[in-house]
Amino acid sequence: MLQLLMTQERPPLPTMHVPPYLVNEYYDDRYFDVVNAIEEAKHIFFQGTGIMDTLCAAGPGRKEFIIGETGFGAGRLLIALMDFLDNSGITDIAITYNSVELHPVTSERMASILSGFRTEACPLIDLLVSAYSRIEISKPGWHQIQLTRPFGIITLNLWIGEALDMVHALSTPCDAWFLDGHGPKKNPAMWRHELLMAIGEKTVTGGAVATFTVAGAVRRGLTDVGFSVEQRPGVGGKKAVLKGVKG
Ligand SMILES: C[S@@+](CC[C@H](N)C(=O)[O-])C[C@H]1O[C@@H](n2cnc3c(N)ncnc32)[C@H](O)[C@@H]1O
Q: Which fold has domain 2-246?
């Protein structure tokens, strides 16, 4: 139990080893763990929500899939997802990727944050940074980017503002949610009942949720709003991660 509690937040690193641009100054927390950032995303979020199983089960023809993300940050999950799908061998996929960011970074800072895994995903980083640089990040509300990839097309709907407002503004429920808004100790607002309730309401029956934290408050919060949650083996510094399915 003590071990699990200790893995709920990102493992601490000596401050001198963390470049300042990697730390979100509003929450005193790293955007993500740069080591294995892509692999970590695939394990926690894509395997956790079973995207590949859903896409494979969809059969021939256009496969539409709607994702919600709490905490866009530097777009690492979006890059990892494009990399994952590019290498899936599946085509004719149309992903709608709804995300939200209260404190948007500049495109220059985004490039710096993502530089830790440039060797793995250079073209995808350049593609996203270039498209993101055309977003007016000082303007609240929806912004849209469409990217064409070998797997199909991905549409990023990015809400600049508060997560609850973004979830309320969604007109169509999501098939899967990636909850990545800093840990509950650093940012309890991202895990409050009101927000989790809204996320539950904007999830299709049988839809999935995945997150890096197994904190008791998160497990109980997701259970309270209708998800059956389950701990899975972790990755990197995390002993366990969480997935849930909406009943
Ligand atoms: C851990 S970072 C996200 C990392 C991102 N998924 C990535 O892979 O690059 C969490 C993000 O959530 C944002 N955030 C925190 N609280 C928020 C809120 N109430 N509404 C919207 N965004 C919020 C933070 O500013 C931060 O960028």
A: Rossmann fold (3.40.50)
